[in-house]
Amino acid sequence: MFVSTKSALWFLILALTILLFFPVMFAAEDGYALKRQQMVEQDIRDRGLKDPVVLTVMRKVPRHLFIDESLRSRAYGDHPLPIGEGQTISQPYVVALMTEALRLKPGDRVLEVGTGSGYQAAVLAEIVKAVYTIEIRKALADQAAERLAALGYRNVKVKYGDGYFGWEEEAPFDAIIITAAANHVPPPLIKQLKEGGRLIVPLGSTVYFQTLTLATKRKGDLDVEQISPVAFVPMVGEMQKR
């Protein structure tokens, strides 16, 4: 087969690009994978979390892709990071803690209030059938939707709106996770939670500190268990009026 000099040169350039670029890309990803492994071992498992599914997912989801590129060197430290709009991506330990506390099953449908960067939604989506996540800040909602779609999370739906009112048309939910500080559990969310379902929320002062609280719905009421002191940014919208 005849190949022109121009075509041969093009193929040579392409081959050299692949040889030079891909090792760098894979080396970078290997580095992030190692950091994720260290994060799980040191900051999550060594602090008492044991669910093998949650640990596996935390090793898998690329937290560095949910933050600004300038912060990626800090992606796997056990601390929150800014994501814009005055919001943060939660520290990995807290993400794992909240996820484990919900005792999720593969067939569950989960509502998340406070999408933020989309990282918590991605962690949930690796475990359950469907995730419905609501974000009150449109810019963050749009960014998270694009990011999650680009990463292949087809079982996540993102809605721009006030999470206080939940997502009635998709209810009921097996579990609800609120990723912002609340001084009470919104009644619409209690209504949209299945009987026997679990809800987790940072409950308390929306200005200072809260207690991570797990509530199980039994006969229409919430059976409450306090887990750990935490500090989250406040839930806004209707919550501020109550």
Describe, in plain words, how this protein is organized in 3D.
The structure is a single chain. This protein has 242 residues and is of the alpha/beta class. It has a domain at 79-241: Vaccinia Virus protein VP39 (Rossmann fold, 3-Layer(aba) Sandwich). It has 6 helices and 9 strands; from the N terminus they run ααββαβαβαββαβββ. The chain has helices at 5-44, 52-60, 92-101, 119-125, 138-150, 187-192; strands at residues 81-84, 87-89, 109-113, 130-135, 156-160, 173-178, 193-204, 210-218, 221-230. Strands 5-4-3-6-7-8-9 form a 7-stranded mixed β-sheet. Strand 1 and strand 2 (87-89) form a beta hairpin. Helix 1 (5-44) packs antiparallel against helix 2. The radius of gyration is 21 Å and the shape is globular. The N and C termini lie far apart (76 Å). The model is unreliable at 22-28 (pLDDT under 50).
Provide the residue-averaged pLDDT: 90
Q: Classify the fold: give the CATH topology of one domain.
A: Rossmann fold
Please name the CATH architecture of one domain.
Answer: 3-Layer(aba) Sandwich
Our estimate of the beta-strand percent is 15-25%
List the helices and strands and how they pair.
Elements: H1 5-44, H2 52-60, E1 81-84, E2 87-89, H3 92-101, E3 109-113, H4 119-125, E4 130-135, H5 138-150, E5 156-160, E6 173-178, H6 187-192, E7 193-204, E8 210-218, E9 221-230
Parallel strand pairs: 3-4, 3-6, 4-5, 6-7
Antiparallel strand pairs: 1-2, 7-8, 8-9
